[in-house]
Design brief:
Number of strands: 30
Helix content: under 10%
Order of helices and strands: EEEEEEEEEEEEEEEEEEEEEEEEEEEEEE
Shape: globular
Number of helices: 0
Distance between the termini: 21 Å
Radius of gyration: 27 Å
């Protein structure tokens, strides 16, 4: 169970948390057949509240509950051939908005109906080693998603691309009736060629299907993002990913690991939204949503040192992620929300003694694309911003970078009498965000509070919000018994 409260005062702020439970049973049916049965429960909830008192307030809560059962079997055909097969079934309950607004003591319930979904799949795969040089993993997964009642589905018609759709009709369904159904085949293939003891090449292809969608119009992930299932209007997102890479070890004891890998992914049915879409509490949300295609490509480098007092790793990715949606950005490609041109991570460890270890972790990420207004007009002394070119992703917020350091003190391994201790423990002393970088969480615009003179321009300001903008010390004690 985990929960986080981010409160501005006792009445205002947002919270989120997750409660989980897992039951797993393993069984060996014989020398060759092994089974693993897993049941998993998750209850993720998130909420928002604001208002100065009980007579004027707003409270919004949302949650996603899932119950998952997954039987998986492994059959060892021989020492070089392993077969994996099984299934998966997940039942979803979405509560998109349990919302109440109170104004001058009068309460109004603006909650939305729950949504239900059932995802099921069967899969089979084979891991084969043909010889010392060549091996392959290949398989097929067939998945199905049912958008289920009780509920109401709406039919919408696109009149102008990129604009809100028009209402056509609606149909009500009873409990457990199928309101929409999708079936997809998801093949995969991975090939490994071992050209020597320390060098190998790998290539892979995967098709992935996503039936649950994240809908957000912010530049940074936050607990108020909306999750919704696939419906008659929201098709599952499909992705085909291709990758090829070189992997090599160096040194007499494999002291260093190095890899370079290129990837390309094209996607279908990418979720987008119209300008001015209302995403938070909207019964007709699907009228504001659009669908498009996407592509992502990149080059990943990785270097790791495994031995010696000083060890660690460096990873760097040069990549791009773009979308193309009819009616958005003049139907031209534009950077997706998760587009990151540069992604650098440097991690180091230094063994000061048998008990003391020092570590440092540096992260650098290119700024996230966002959309800023390009022009404005004035109406009764109020600034009205707008995007004159209907562009998307026209600005990047400042880059993210942060340095964390820590020192670990391991407990003594032996008792005073020389016997080995059964229990182990250690202390960690750390500093988060060492140089107090104010990394941007979001940027918003506002106009000045002073009333301007007649025919004088109105001042406007851009404000950057940082969740953590200072150094944070931390101490933790850990033990195993």
């Amino acid at each position: 169970m985990a929960g986080i409260n981010f409160l501005f005062d006792k009445n205002q702020g947002f919270t989120w948390g997750n409660k989980t439970a897992t039951i797993r049973w393993n069984h060996l049916f014989g020398d060759r057949l092994f089974s693993n049965f897993t049941t998993f429960f998750s209850d993720y909830d998130y909420s928002l509240a604001f208002g100065e008192n009980s007579r004027d307030r707003f409270e919004w809560k949302s949650r996603i509950r899932t119950v998952n059962f997954k039987p998986e079997f492994t059959y060892f055909i021989n020492a070089s051939n392993e077969l994996i097969f099984g299934g998966d079934i997940i039942y979803y309950t979405f509560n998109p908005a349990n919302a109440i607004g109170v104004s001058d003591g009068e309460s109004v319930d603006i909650s939305l109906d729950k949504k239900y979904g059932l995802e099921s799949a069967i899969f089979i795969g084979n891991d084969t080693k043909f010889n010392d040089m060549f091996s392959a993993e290949y398989g097929l997964r067939v998945s199905n998603f049912q958008y289920m009642g009780p509920g109401t589905i709406f039919e919408w018609e696109t009149v102008t691309p990129g604009k809100q759709k028009q209402y056509v009709s609606e149909t009500k369904f009873e409990d457990f009736e199928s309101m929409a159904s999708y079936t997809n085949f998801e093949p995969r293939l991975a090939i490994k060629v071992q050209t020597g003891e320390k060098t190998s090449f790998k290539a892979s292809y995967n098709r992935m299907t996503q039936y649950v969608h994240l809908i957000s119009n912010t530049t940074a992930s936050n607990p108020l993002d909306v999750w919704t299932p696939s419906t008659n209007n929201i098709k599952p997102q499909l992705g085909d990913q291709y990758a090829i890479g070189l992997f090599k070890n160096f040194g007499p004891n494999n002291d260093y690991e190095f890899s370079v890998e290129a990837y390309y992914r094209d996607t279908q049915n990418q979720i987008e939204y119209i300008d001015g879409a209302n995403l938070l509490i909207n019964q007709y949300l699907e009228a504001d949503l659009l669908s498009g295609i996407g592509k992502a490509q990149g080059l990943e480098f990785y270097l790791k040192k495994n031995t010696g007092k000083l060890n660690g790793w460096i990873s760097y990715t040069l990549g791009s992620s773009e979308l193309k949606v009819d009616g958005i950005n003049n139907t031209e490609w534009y950077p997706a929300r998760y587009d990151q041109r540069h992604n650098l991570k440097v991690v180091g460890y230094y063994e000061l003694s048998q008990r003391w270890t020092l570590s440092a972790n540096f992260t650098y990420l290119s700024g996230t694309p966002t959309t800023f207004p390009t022009d404005r007009y004035t109406q009764q002394n109020y600034l009205i911003p707008y995007n004159a070119f209907e562009s998307r992703g026209n600005v990047r917020i400042p880059s993210f970078h942060r340095l964390d350091i820590s020192a670990t003190l391991n407990g003594r391994k032996y008792k005073r009498n020389g016997e080995l201790r059964k229990n182990t423990d250690y202390w960690v002393f750390g500093f988060y965000n060492v140089y107090a970088r104010r990394n941007p969480f979001s940027i918003y615009f506002s106009q000045g509070t002073d009333r301007p003179a007649l025919d004088m321009p109105i001042d406007s300001y851009a404000t950057q919000v940082s969740i953590v903008g200072t150094i944070i010390p931390a101490v933790s004690y850990n033990f195993n018994f």
